[in-house]
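Why does residue order matter? Because the sequence determines the fold. Keep that principle in mind as you read this record.
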Amino acid sequence: MSASEPALRFEISARESSGPARCGRLHTRRGTLETPVFMPVGTAGAVKTLHPDEVQKLGFSLILGNTYHLMLRPGAERIAGLGGLHRFMGWTGSILTDSGGYQVFSLQKIRHIREEGVEFRSHIDGSTHFLSPERAIDIQQKLGSDIMMALDECPPHDAGAAYHAASCQRTTRWAARCLAVRRPGSGALFGIVQGGLDRVLRRAHLSELAAMPFEGLALGGLSVGEGPERMAEVVSEIAPLMPADRPRYLMGVGEPRDILMAVRAGIDMFDCVLPTRNARNGSLFTRQGRIQIRNSIHAGSDRPIEEGCGCPACQRFSRAYLRHLFLSNEILGHRLNTLHNLHFFAAFMADIRRAIREDRLEAFTSDFHRTFDSSRGEERFG
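Structure:
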């Protein structure tokens, strides 16, 4: 990509008539994808258990990589020397990389924050690593990310008003430092809005970051233990205020109900480990709710996970067989479960986009809440 070519273009293709939900097209240097979009998580350069061609065949053209983990192993410099992350992992689609800001939250016991950046003690071997805003961008540029995230501080939701205010100020300063070191011709760069559950603080922080030349903005610091109702209050108020001409990204949210809520508030992009992690734990998504494949109700069933599902697991295998694989800890079971869950998420997002384009998102939402009931999924599929 030349230095004069935009790193990312975003255009709105359809809007819901009764609310802020919208469909769009996100043009990266590696192709065009439709929004609202869900990104499978490839933390260490792989969507767990799947070949990259399988991920693309399921309908995904954008995945997420993890700056912190790839920094530790195998190292950004090594990946750069081998041609960048796309070539390293054999992925021809687009890649968004987080900045390490979430690890500021999740690895609180082995990190120390100061104005210059964050010092981590490696969870692998105990070695010390320093991640500054400048280093976070340098790593993402070495990886060849199509969309990079500015380094932010993601505090606990209950950290206290003074801490959240100071965290927003630090995140803004770090955002400016990230912008200052981005090289021409590198990937797009998104800023991350913090502020916890304080909607006044969220508005103020959004105003600061929206004035900066980011190609997109994200809401961070949610789905970190505050509960779905309180998260929905923040997203429903703040998302419609995010710049309408730039993509809006809700980080780390993957529950189907939460995705649908956020789409209705105007969010365009999502990522979460939920479908792949749940698959490895035997929790499978269906239109009628979740089922737990280990449960004895499935032991003698020759039915697929979900009737009419086009995924490789449902097309060929029974719930009884998938239960056997899971209880035997066979890798094939993890793979088939993952294929099914990601197929569900791809189809779910396609259905949402179709409902927006046909201006029937309200009806789609009502139907979803009537049929998707995780507490009764086992009964309906028994």
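The radius of gyration is 21 Å.
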